[in-house]
TrEMBL record, chains A, B:
InterPro entries (UniProt xref): Metal_resp_DNA-bind_regulator (IPR052509), Tscrpt_reg_PadR_N (IPR005149), WH-like_DNA-bd_sf (IPR036388), WH_DNA-bd_sf (IPR036390)
Top-rank lineage group of the source organism: Bacteria
Lineage: Bacteria, Pseudomonadati, Acidobacteriota, Terriglobia, Terriglobales
Every Transcription regulator PadR N-terminal domain range: 15-90
UniProt protein name: PadR family transcriptional regulator
Gene3D superfamilies per the UniProt record, alphabetical: Winged helix-like DNA-binding domain superfamily/Winged helix DNA-binding domain (1.10.10.10)
Length: 114, 114
DNA sequence: TGCCATTTCTTCAATAATAGTGAATATATG
DNA sequence: CATATATTCACTATTATTGAAGAAATGGCA
């Protein structure tokens, strides 16, 4: 069996999106948030699948809210990042930050070139 | 078929390790470099597998050097990050940087807590 | 009132791609 | 030939992606 591994890129981004959204972190806005940050479309199914896996690993927890009084206002499943999830994000950030420090070809790039 | 996706966490780290190593970037030191940065052991096979995939995707290129005059000095396969590989690293870094900006619970963490 | 179309959100099933492992293989030198 | 360095291989596990189906709610209209 494959042993414990890194946080996947997608997992990392989802965790960060949840932190950004705070109390409004359920599947749909998480997906929208990612699309905004990444500039590409994200399949909702992949977000839910990843959330499911991360809940099993203890990186996020979820709770189902009440239905809202609006058309299609089905109860939402809200997600939070657990302490362990936060720790993993922090560690990943540390490693990446160290890795791209001292690499001018990376860090001096300011965005898509003209 | 799954469409084009993000750079995986592992792929990203390998690309960064290659950039750090410059002219000495072949399988073994790449793996060692990762172990140093990540603080965990890395299976050599997984590094080669990832390098292989990335070469197919055009993110790295490789060339086989000459044997070196030392015991077991088998010819090495050196890797370089291509222009496209570099661009992907840069874009990934941009997205991640934006995502963890404004999150004090992430950015104000200075390392493994005492 | 009682349906049903519509909306919002979640789950599912199936496939592709990536990660990880241990053993095997290839080539050097001493 | 034993040993050292490096790469490749075969196989399994985990993660990513997609498209469609399922659940639950409201709004409007006969």
């Amino acid at each position: 069996m494959a042993k414990r591994t890194f946080l996947g890129e997608f997992e990392l981004m989802i965790l960060l999106a949840i932190l950004h959204l705070g109390d409004e972190a359920y599947g749909v806005p998480v997906s929208r948030e990612l699309e905004n940050y990444c500039g590409r479309s994200i399949a909702l199914g992949s977000v839910y699948a990843s959330l499911e896996r991360m809940e099993n690993k203890g990186l996020v927890s979820s709770s189902v809210g009440d239905p809202t009084p609006e058309r299609g206002g089905k109860a939402k499943r809200y997600f939070r990042v657990t302490g362990e999830g936060l720790r993993e994000v922090q560690e990943t950030r540390q490693v990446l930050t160290r890795l791209w420090q001292g690499l001018p070809q990376i860090t001096e790039w300011k965005g898509r070139q003209a």
